Every structure is written in C-alpha cells, then in structure tokens.
Amino acid sequence: MTKENFLQLSGVSAGYGASRVLDGIDLTIAKGEFVALLGSSGCGKTTLLRAIAGFVAPSAGSIKVADRDVTGLPPDKRGMALVFQSYALWPHMTVAQNIGYGLKLQRHPRAEITRRVGEMEKLLGLSGLGDRKPVQLSGGQRQRVALGRALAIDPEILLLDEPLSNLDVRIRLTVRHEIRVLQKRLGITAVHVTHDREEAMVMADRIVILDSGRIAQQGTPEAVYNRPASAFVAAFMGAENRVELWGQPSPGRFEIEAGPANAACAVPLDGRALSRGFVEARFRAEAAQLVPANAADSVAAGSLELSGHVESVSYPGGLWRHAVRVGDDMILVDAHKAFGQGEAVKIRIPSDVLFLFSTPEAQPLASTRSWPGGAKSRSLETSEA
C-alpha cells in the first residue's frame, strides 16, 4: 500500500433489488485527500458513499483500505465515520453526550471520553455548549456536533453525506470552509457527497462526477471545470449554453463553417478528438461577450461569433443576464450593461472557453436545417461523415 492508493474501489457494482445503481466503479483515493462525489439526483453518489461505509453490500467488486479488504465487514469494523445529511443527533442527549456516543460504544474509560469530548468541543468552537440539547442549537452548531461525534473516534476515513444541505446559504459558506480547514489540519481522508458544483469546487482536492452509476470524469476542480471530457460534464459544470455547428478538422484546427446564425471560424484543436460533421458547442453565460449587431471591431482569432436578438433581460446581481434567441436556440449571456429587449446582438465566445464535442449519434434538432455554402441538411452530412 502506498499513500496514493489508501482507499481502493475495484469494479464496484451495487443496486437495490433488480435496479442497478453503481456499474463497475474503479476509484483510488490517496491518504489525506479530500474527494467530492458530484452528480445529479439518482446518479449513484450516495449509494457509492454507503457502499464505502458498509451500509450497502456490493453485488460485485471489492473495497480496500490500506490493502485490507473491507468489502464484507460491517460499518463499525471499517475505521470510518459517516456524517449524515440529517445529522442524526440524539435529541435527549446533550452536546457532550452526542459527541462522546461513539467512544462510549467502544467502551473507552469515562475519563478518556471526557478528555476527547473536550478536545472536540474546543476544536469545533462548541466550548460552553456541552450541556445543551440539540434543539437549543443553531443549524451550524448541530452540524458541528455531528462532525465532532464522527471525529471523536479518530477514524481513518471521514464520509460526508451532503452535511451542508440543511443549512441556509450564509451559514453554509462558513461551515464548508471550516470543514476544509479542519480536514487539512487533521490530515484525514475525506469523501464528500454533494450535488452543489460550487461546494465541490471549493472543498475538494479532486472531483469525481457520476452519471448513471458510472464515473463520467474525475480530476482537480480546475481540470474538470476548464477541460470537461464530455458534453454531459460540460453542462454539469455550468456550460449550459448549447448550439450545434458544422465543421471539419484540419492540421491543428477545427474549421467551423458559416451557418444561419454563426460566422465561420477556426478553433484550435488543443488535443480534442473532433471528426468531420456536426459538433455540440457549449459555453458558460459569463464566458461570452455580448456586443451590438453593428459592432465594427474585429473578432479575436479563434472566437466563435453568433447572431441573435435579445428576448429578455434580468439582473441577478453583479451582471445583467440576457436571454438571446439564436436560431432555434435560447442562449444566456451575462454583460456589464443591459441591452434592450428585441435588440440585435452578436455573441462572441473565445476558443479557450468554448467546449466542442462530436455528435455522431445525435438526432438532428431540425432535419431540414441547411448551412450556407454547404447546402446540405444535417442528416446528409452525418451520413457522409
């Protein structure tokens, strides 16, 4: 066992009854690493966490901790602690009793329990609250008690099942920072389940994105955000704007042909495996630039330019958000100033924030759509590619 393969999952599959939720998960987590399992509801992230914890028995595969096979061991024999979404505090117990509950089950001496509970209260900012019941605490304090109970038993691995989802936004921002700082200070290995992209980005060393029980992509927050491996990952990481374009690769570039709502351009391939035909282009609202349709300034090399009309404008804070009709698509673009409703505009997307993915199996959005210069429908181009 090395530090890099402290927790190993090999071919782990699991489900409930005839329904398979996890499908051949291979995942290695280093000692002291903070990994976030990210995905939408039903993707399998909570089932994966519960399989690691021992509450779900895999139908295939193995789970090892420091080269020790724990696949068939009960939860209390795995050296792990789980913080539940609901905190699961005993309402009739005090803060001190809740924190010390696991130590009591392990039959530690009373003096040792008192000492350890005191350390946890001090570490988590709960000093002076030991005699209170959970009902007398704020949401953030209850979350800290649940965390203290998990850490008191000195686990090798800390498992977090969306522990911040019940907190309001202001408290959530503070507590997630506290958990991250605490994890780094203790050097503990942590696996955190969340559906919140920003939460995963700011807390984790590595993000693992799940889709339909499989790993869609994993990597550092920066890598997953800036280099999504698929259209699904790009959309999940905020690149929800989507348009379809036609083009073909040339040495070092992908040549996008002019279409009904886009100008021709050449985008650097940058290692992307793109084939001749239709591609799905994705980008984030804040990554694009909105300019008047009659703007005379030159477009930066490699930038995609789309033409459309503003349909609505809103102000979510900081920037104005515009819903722009581009052909059959509705595109969201942020700008520092508000454009008028119905105004003709151009959307410019630099190549480094434009994500392109080949769509050989995609169904046409409009089977009669043709591109100027090519004069071919999508269905014909796809058959010839």
UniProtKB/TrEMBL annotation:
GO terms for molecular function: ATP binding. It holds the Pfam family ABC_tran. Transmembrane segments: none annotated. It comes from the Bacteria. SUPFAM superfamilies: P-loop containing nucleoside triphosphate hydrolases. Residues 364-385 are annotated as: Disordered. Residues 7-237 form the ABC transporter domain. Keywords: ATP-binding, Nucleotide-binding, Transport. Belongs to the ABC transporter superfamily. This is ABC transporter ATP-binding protein. It comes from Mesorhizobium shangrilense.
